[in-house]
């Protein structure tokens, strides 16, 4: 039997400003025959390599790895700097060749002296076989229309792209019954202005050209008002675009002030950027405010990751540093943030993980443990990440005049929910373990409920069912029964007593309770995957 396995997760720790400390460790899977250090890789992500070696169980036959054959030899090949040896080899993934594969998952067969396994390359590179138009609203004051076209189409283009920008405003703002349409037009002397037009709309179009070398073109628009102001009058922005005289297509955008707009991270490394974006997508899908990257918190998190690695982990795999040791930058997370230049004395929350599965695995692993999820889903606004090899550190904080936007007092947010896809490859093993489990470590991927800060959530019943409607044995943890006193009154968690199957399936949870004394009922559906790197939902 040919198998693949997930890299063994070493440990996780978490610490928030209210001193919740947690860690996790997963049990190893015993593989046989050929073994992959990871089962898949996605384009535009970190670490394009993996190890291939003989398994540990059963009779071990010597395999000359140099003789292994890949069904996609341009995509996968052994490292020449570290040549393969008997029973072991380092395989490199060529990102440029991987982008040429069909979009989605591509299974590549590996044949070593008749023993076969497969490695999955997921090509997430933008599909340039058709024109794609989308919004980028990461700028708080403006938006961009991004039109991506096939290079061959651009090369044959004579007139490029023409686009229009309009704002649709409710008539009630002006005391009239009908929607009013304003176009963004060039203004005498430079700049633009909003104007109502009754004719000659074509004359106010903005023309842009593209090139085959740059088939993805951005059209930034300065609206002259903020998205909050747009939301206040229930206005909607319309983008219309036309390519080479073809039919005019229209996209519309409206801003929901309940969920802030994500500010793009400026991380050069794909792993850091994807961790940041994944956590923000999770918070958005859950109904919470976004994080913002803070360079001082990045510096503090990186310094602590370096300290842990330099000192060999072990007893130093902690949130507190020891003065005088190599790499020391501050005793506590707050000390390190101030030392790195963070402009606030607010307490800093910190989570750490040590995982050979990379930052992708760490993100989902942390979210699946109650004490970790409480921190990541809490009221923090600013974010910083650092890593050194398999040590990942993430810091969270606020500033006095710019706190996180809290959820509405009538809202009960739950993670996972809203059909989100969750990676359950790593589950359980928090240290300390959730108090309601009486030191049991191998529990399942947990759910977290959140209400507005200053309010209390009361759980009357909370059940979890699998795709066959079978009830999963669980236990609920709230502030009232958490003897470790690490659960705040606006949090609750539903903890499966055993790990959930590491397969692609779906679950439904039903929570009935009270939000500050007011009864509510909320149903959530969510899906799972495992042994696969993915970021977007």
From TrEMBL:
Signal peptide from the UniProt entry: 1-24
Signal among keywords: yes
InterPro entries: CAP_sf
Entry keyword set: Signal
Highest taxon of the lineage: Bacteria
Protein name (record): Cysteine-rich secretory protein family protein
Species of the source: Giesbergeria anulus
Taxonomic lineage from the root: Bacteria, Pseudomonadati, Pseudomonadota, Betaproteobacteria, Burkholderiales
């Amino acid at each position: 039997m040919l198998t693949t396995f997930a890299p063994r997760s070493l440990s996780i720790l978490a610490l928030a400003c209210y001193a919740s400390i947690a860690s996790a460790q997963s049990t190893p899977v015993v593989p046989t025959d050929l073994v992959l250090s990871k089962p898949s890789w996605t384009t535009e992500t970190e670490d394009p390599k993996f190890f291939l070696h003989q398994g540990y169980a059963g009779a071990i036959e010597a395999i000359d790895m140099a003789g292994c054959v890949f069904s996609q030899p341009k995509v996968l090949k052994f490292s020449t700097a570290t040549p393969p040896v008997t029973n072991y080899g380092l395989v490199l993934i060529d990102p440029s060749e991987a982008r040429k594969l069909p979009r989605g998952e591509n299974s590549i067969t590996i044949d070593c002296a008749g023993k076969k396994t497969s490695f999955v390359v997921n090509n997430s590179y933008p599909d340039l076989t058709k024109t794609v138009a989308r919004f980028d609203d990461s700028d708080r004051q403006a938006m961009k229309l991004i039109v991506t076209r096939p290079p061959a189409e651009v090369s044959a283009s004579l007139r490029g792209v023409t686009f229009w920008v309009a704002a649709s405003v409710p008539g009630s703002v002006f005391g009239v019954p009908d929607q009013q349409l304003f176009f963004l037009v060039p203004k005498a002397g430079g700049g633009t202005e909003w104007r109502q037009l009754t004719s000659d709309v074509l004359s106010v179009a903005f023309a842009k050209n593209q090139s085959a070398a740059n088939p993805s073109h951005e059209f930034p628009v300065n609206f002259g008002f903020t998205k909050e102001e747009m939301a206040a009058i229930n206005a909607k922005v319309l983008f219309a675009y036309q390519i080479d005289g073809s039919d005019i297509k229209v996209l519309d955008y409206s801003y929901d002030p309940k969920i802030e707009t994500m500010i793009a991270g400026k991380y050069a490394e794909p792993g850091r950027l994807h961790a940041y974006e994944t956590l923000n997508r999770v918070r958005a899908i859950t109904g919470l405010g976004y994080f913002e990257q803070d360079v001082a918190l990045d510096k503090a998190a990186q310094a602590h990751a370096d300290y842990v690695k330099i000192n060999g982990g072990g007893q130093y795999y902690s949130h507190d540093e020891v003065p005088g040791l190599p790499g020391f930058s501050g005793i506590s997370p707050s000390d390190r943030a101030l030392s790195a230049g963070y402009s606030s004395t607010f307490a800093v929350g910190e989570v750490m993980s040590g995982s050979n599965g990379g930052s992708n695995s760490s993100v989902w692993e942390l979210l699946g443990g109650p004490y970790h999820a409480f921190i990541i889903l809490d009221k923090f606004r600013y974010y910083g990440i650092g890593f050194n090899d398999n040590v990942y550190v993430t810091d969270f904080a606020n500033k006095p005049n710019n706190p996180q936007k809290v959820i509405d007092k009538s809202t009960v947010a739950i993670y996972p929910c809203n059909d989100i896809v969750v990676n359950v490859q790593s589950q359980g093993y928090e240290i300390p373990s959730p108090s309601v489990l009486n030191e049991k470590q191998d529990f399942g991927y947990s759910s977290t409920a959140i209400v507005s800060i200053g309010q209390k959530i009361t759980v009357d019943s909370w059940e979890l069912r699998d795709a066959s409607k079978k009830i999963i044995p669980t236990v609920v943890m709230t502030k009232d029964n958490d003897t470790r006193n690490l659960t705040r009154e606006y949090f609750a968690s539903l903890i499966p007593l055993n790990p959930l199957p590491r397969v692609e399936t779906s679950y439904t949870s039903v929570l009935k309770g009270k939000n500050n004394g007011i009864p509510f009922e909320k149903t959530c559906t969510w899906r799972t995957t495992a042994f696969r790197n993915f970021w977007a939902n």
